[in-house]
# Entry
Amino acid sequence: MPVEPNPVQPNPAPAKPGLKRRWLFVILALTFLFVLMPFLFWQATWFGKPLDNAQLAKSLNDRADPREVQHALSQLADRILAPSPAMRDSAREFYPQVVQIAQNGEDELRLTAAWVMGQDNSVPGFHDELLVLLRDSNPMVRRNAALALVRFHDASGIAEIRSMLQPSSIAVPSQGTALDERLKPGDAINPGTLVGRVEHGDRAISELRSQIPGTIDRWLVPDKSSVAPAQPVLLVDPSNDEMWEALRALYLIGDAQDLPMLDNISHGATGDVALRVRQQAEVTASAIRSRLK
# Structure
């Protein structure tokens, strides 16, 4: 049978001259947005654009938006640590506001204020306020205050610093008919993490959130069991970052009673501890032994 010839394929229509140009504009616009959006986000976050004095004062007083206050506090810390004497001096007029935030601010603002006050150890008022914060109800505020006091050559917070190297317990705030455990041993948590819920007899349910970072070691009560007010229900191992900060502080203020714990950490006897933490424990122990000679 004769083979029929292939039908002639029509030539494709030539592309319109403006089509490629339009696609080029679209690609350029998308590229610009990919660059612009992170920049705008960066501008809006804590460590974004520098604030002038008027903006700094306004943000420090903006109690309706804690993020604005934290942004201002971080900018103030930048000024304190700046190499320029004029920039460092410009921070001082805002020191009374920092103390006020430490006294009356929300938890996250008090802990940030404690960190800021630790950046300038020449201010007696900061030292006095940090001593007050050692008795704060929030453990993270107490820890920041204890670490900041080391900058003042003050070891008043050493007990709090030592606690950062030990497991901590989380207690329920009130009595409950059943504890609903939401996480399991080995899970990492941060301040604010929901670890469980507590059921009450009137069908009300309250949340149980962590105030500290770390890793869940174990639950101290069985799931669905009743709990008493202020009963510890969860044991949390310290985070590597918290341990590292505590070890750096003990490098300066630690004493002989810290050596057994430091040796355990440096030899890896305290669980899953990062190498940098074990190394810092060894360096800290050496510094303490040198002071004891």
The beta strands are 168-171, 178-181, 188-189, 194-199, 205-209, 214-219, 232-237.
